[in-house]
């Protein structure tokens, strides 16, 4: 029985050695290996005297180049209908972009200044301007900004964007302005 075990163990060792020897013989270390591609930036232009080599030029990419929020060029005004503090759908992209910008950088702060047209009493317009500012602030919070980053204030009819007493001027004055702090 011991002899069988010794023979079986010997055969097993011989089989493993043959397997290792067979694997080693298929690799020729004398052959030239293909070149390793460089991951460092290169000044070689594609097709410019590279005679058979396939090196590619690597250039850095600025992912924020077309991102308006990175350049701080976001639209800053949300306009409202007469006697309303409902944020219209057409200004949703503006609010979303500011919310994304605030969520990305929690150190940023934003003041939302509510304004009205000249019609109505002073107290009424201050209250309506505040509701407009708060409506925009609430939308920003719902889209990812922290309430601590926002301040809603009203100027009522005290700071018109456009002088005039016609519908065009009033439409420009019914607004909330988003101002970085």
Description of the structure:
- The chain has 181 residues and is α+β, with helices and mostly antiparallel strands.
- The protein has a domain at 76-173: 2-Layer Sandwich (60s Ribosomal Protein L30, Chain: A), CATH 3.30.1330.
- The protein has 5 helices and 4 strands, in the order H-H-E-H-E-H-E-H-E.
- The protein has helices at residues 2-25, 68-71, 92-104, 122-142, 167-173, and strands at residues 77-79, 110-115, 150-156, 175-180.
- The protein has a 4-stranded mixed beta sheet with strand order 1-4-2-3.
- Helix 4 links the parallel strand 2 and strand 3 (150-156).
- Helix 3 crosses helix 4.
- The longest helix has 24 residues, at 2-25.
- The termini are far apart.
- The model has no long low-confidence stretch (mean pLDDT 79).
């Amino acid at each position: 029985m011991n002899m069988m075990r010794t023979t079986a163990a010997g055969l097993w060792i011989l089989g493993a050695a043959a397997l290792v020897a067979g694997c080693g013989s298929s690799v020729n270390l004398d052959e030239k290996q293909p070149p390793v591609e460089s991951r460092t930036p290169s000044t070689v232009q594609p097709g410019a005297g590279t005679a058979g080599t396939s090196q590619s030029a690597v250039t850095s990419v600025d992912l924020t180049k077309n991102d308006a929020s990175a350049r701080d060029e976001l639209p800053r005004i949300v306009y409202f209908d007469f006697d309303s503090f409902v944020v219209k759908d057409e200004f949703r992209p503006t609010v979303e972009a500011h919310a994304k910008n605030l969520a990305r950088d929690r150190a940023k702060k934003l003041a939302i200044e509510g304004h009205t047209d000249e019609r109505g009493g002073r107290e009424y317009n201050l209250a309506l301007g505040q509701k407009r500012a708060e409506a925009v602030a609430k939308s920003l919070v719902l889209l990812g900004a922290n309430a601590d980053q926002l301040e809603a204030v009203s100027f009522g009819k005290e700071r018109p964007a456009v002088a005039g007493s016609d519908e065009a001027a009033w439409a420009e004055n019914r607004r909330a302005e988003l101002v970085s702090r």
